[in-house]
Amino acid sequence: MxxxxxxxxxxxxxxxxxxxxxEIFIYYDGALxxxxxxxxxxxxxxxxxxxxxxxxxxxxxxxxxxQVYATGLARCRSAxxxxxxxxxxxxxxxxxxxxxDRIPAEVDAVRVPTAEAxxxxxxxxGEAFGATHFRTAWPSGPVTRMPRLLRRVIYGRVASLLxxxxxxxxxxxxxxxxxxxxxxxxxxxxxxxGALVTVDIDSLGSELQGMYLAHFDAVGRDHWQRKWRMRxxxxxxxxxxxxxRAAQMAYFLDSMGQGDAAVRRLFIRYYGLSRLQFFVLxxxxxxxxxxxxxxxPPLPLPVHHSNLLLTSPTMS
Length: 316
Prior knowledge:
Elements: H1 6-18, E1 24-28, E2 41-45, H2 48-52, H3 61-75, E3 80-82, E4 88-92, H4 96-101, E5 109-112, E6 114-118, E7 133-136, H5 148-155, E8 173-177, E9 184-185, E10 190-192, E11 195-196, E12 198-200, E13 211-215, H6 221-232, H7 243-258, H8 260-271, H9 275-283, E14 287-289, E15 300-305, E16 308-314
Helix pairs in contact: 6-7, 7-8
């Protein structure tokens, strides 16, 4: 489900069409904009009639998403369904089809880890989808957790506002196998009869590691500013906003009160990497560069393995 401008919808459709999707269901939360999309995309307007048929439009974003995911699952005719937002793109050392073919038959849902898109050295800072650098979540265990001092050295005063080194979510997104009786789908996990069925690719062997969910938590500076302003003004009602996200929002509101220059500086602190920052994060195994929208991305990918990152062969 999305509420994005036509140019982002078109980019999303083109990416997954080229990736081999047999069907793309876009549930638009509001009145559809003027846009034509190529097959196999289907645009569904979540208007008053749509919600009336489902008992009314839920006030909370998460509740609307859950209904849309269930509706999509019911009409999905392919072997797998991927649940993603309009700013999320699967990429890696395998094509999506080849990746899914290697998932063990007993796995009902598999989750791909987040790689958050940020603007690094040489990127056109703030340009929509201009970020070609990615950072991955820091370890979360009590022994392997990134030391607080090191986090502070890398990110300065915004370090405490990042969740395991990311501005957005750290949990990735999932593919769900059709026909397995899944009856609960959230943003990051699926369940059957109340029991969680989603597994992470880390648990499925090294040959599957090296797949990522590119999350453009900030598509571009202008888009980010509009999105966060809507959230700040409560036009997007998210009931499950984590405390760190709320703190990020508070800093954003404070920056808005100081003018455009302050907002631009905050954007860079959240989503920009200097040459030194990128060097340190890459040395720690938590950053890499990748042009995911290029026809044939030439750069090697790191492979996520438990709490380590190893280097994979170059993707052909």
